[in-house]
Each structure stands twice: as structure tokens, then as C-alpha cells.
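Re: duplicated header lines in exported C-alpha cells

Our pipeline writes sequence and C-alpha cells for each protein into one text file. With two proteins the header for the second block appears twice in some exports. Here is an export where it did not happen, for reference. First protein block:
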Amino acid sequence: VATALTVLVLTECLDGETPVLNQDRVPVRLCEIKQGDFVLGWNKRRSVVSRVLKVTRNQVTADQLCRLVLGESTTIIATKNHPFWVDGKKWCSVVPDEKAELKTEVLKVGDYCRDVSGKKVQITAIDNLKSDSDPSALFDVFNLVVDGPGTWFANGVLNHSGMYAKRVSKENCGSNASENVLLKRSKIADLV
């Protein structure tokens, strides 16, 4: 039986401008990463290199986004349900999604995430984003499905794709199983 990777549309996403560390620890914009590239991840207290199986692109409204501030200056724009590793709590998101495959707890100001060197970095602010000009405007967001533990570093902070890659028979996944329909483009930078 032939197998194919099935990827559901991921709603746990990040701004395309987010730097992601490749296998050489060089930052690459998330929107420039392609299937087959290699990124740095984390598994059981050590760095791992994972192959990108799928890059997803989705669109969300501004009210689904937040800006996380870590330490004094590290920022990440993410959907509110995107999971980040928090010491003592495991995977957390600003607004946990009960339907998500990866269960998360609530991410709060004061929590400590992990950076690429394994050090703790504190969440110092969580800001909701909003669009003053057009509340229905859609913004492009991206996610990576990677082999292995499903982890990678967004702006140097450990996060998870929100799901694990699964292999199923090709007959069960259909021709458009992992495709996203793009309606219109807006820039997240306009919200910040």
C-alpha cells in the first residue's frame, strides 16, 4: 500500500517574518522555508536537526494574533493557540485549543520558555493585535510540520507545530488534503 504524508490545515501559526534557525543555526525567515529544508529542533534535552515535511500557509484575522515579548526585546507574532515550551508546564499557548492534537496549558506573563541554548527566557508581555482599518482583513501566517518531535525554534524560542506528522494510506488522504486556499493578503507588520 502506498503511503503519503497527511497534513491537516494547521491553525497554530506564526508571522512569516519570524526567524527560524536552520540546521547551521542561521536564521531564515519562516516564509522562505521550503519542504525538504532542515531546521533545528529539540528532543529530550538536546538539539536535533529535523527535515521540513510540509510548510503550511493559512490566513487569520488580527484578533486571532498576539505578540509575545520574551526577555527585554525578543518578540514573536503568533496565533493565540500556537504552542511554546514552558518550564514546569510543558506545552502552552495563550488560548489553548481543546480540539488540537497537542494539548496545551495557558501561557502567561511570567512563564519561562526555553531558548536555543537551553536557557530560560521569561515572557514579559502578551499583547493582543487588532486591525484599526479593517477588522475582517486577513493576515498570512505559516507553520512547519517537521519529522521527529515536531519542534523547531521561532526567533530562538522552542515551539511546536501543534501536531505530529502521520503517515496514512494515499487512498485516504485525497488530492487536496493538505492544501490551503488563500483569499487575500495583508501584512502583519501593519498591526504592530
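Second protein block, exported in the same file:
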Amino acid sequence: MFFLGRSVSDVRTTPAEFAFYAKRAMRILAEEAIAELPSSSSSIQTPCGVINGTHIETDNLCAVSIIRSGDALLEIVRECLPSVSVGKILIQRNEKSKDKEAILYYSKMPPGIEHMNVLLCDPMLATGGSAKAAIDCLVDKYHVKKERIIFANMITCPEGLKNMAEWYPEIQIISAVVDEGLNDEKYIVPGLGDYGDRFFNTLK
């Protein structure tokens, strides 16, 4: 993971290389997040005998992406669980504001999501504003139980983790990297820049 992290962070990495390395790293993250879903003990029949194993409950799961960067991680989750239900939330930061507050524009969820476990996908957790807005939407509009939400992200920072712990202490966060902190523009440093722009090749 260290090599993959260095590769996606490097400013010299091309968009094609970024997507290649990011997908490999996100696959590891997705598997770790899936492993944190509710599970139960079970016996497994091997070709040579029986062993004790664990059954992870993936049938009652909805993977929700925060558009657009979250779509990259969502697709990796769908590669791991091809039949998973999918939800979408569109949130954008107000870049004209000093606090860069999150604005909710759109959401679409499958029927019965209030009874599902949710894997929330967004590669970056900076201030936590977008994540909070997404979780507010899931809890208030769709009546998802807070303790049934797992939030997966590639890179976070102490400020974002602190905010999330204050807003939603019930929610488990699975992150690959905890970076140093935020700059004055509320971007993670040293970070890797805009994840979505680099992954989808829309850099200016």
C-alpha cells in the first residue's frame, strides 16, 4: 500500500497511471471495508474436510457514492460485490466560501435502504463536511440507522476524523492513509490534489 500511496500522490503521475494505481489501492480498501460488515461464524466444507469460517452479510448492503470521486471507489466495490445495490448522493463544496461548506443537490436510493447496511464511498475525508451532509441525508431522509453505516475513504486527516467523531461517533471509518492536516483552502496536505480530477482526467 505504501508504494501505491506514493504513486498516486506524485504530481508527476499521469492520469492513466493515477487511475491504474488508485484502482489497486482502492481494491485493498474495499476488501477491508467489506470485512467490517456484520458477520457470523459458519462451517466451511473444503475438498479435504471442514473448517470454521466467517460469513460476511453482503446480501443486505447498499453501496452509496458521493458523486463524483466516490464513483471511482464505488466501482471497485461493485467489482468485489457485483450484485450490490447502489445509491448516489451529489454534494459539492462551496468553493467561494471560506469554510467550504457542503451543499446537497441530489440523492437517489434503492427501495428499502432503511433496512440495509450502507457502505458510504468517498476517497477523500478533509473537513468532513461532505460526509456529514451525505450521512445527514441517509439518516434524515432515508431513515438509515447510523450504526449501520461504514464510511470508506482513501485519505483523511486529523481534522476530518475529529469532526466526524463529534458529529457521528456511531459510524465506523475505514481509511488507508491519515495525512498531516488541512491547509487554508481546506485541502488535505500533503495529500494528492483533486482525486476526481486526477482519476477522471479532467485536470485544467
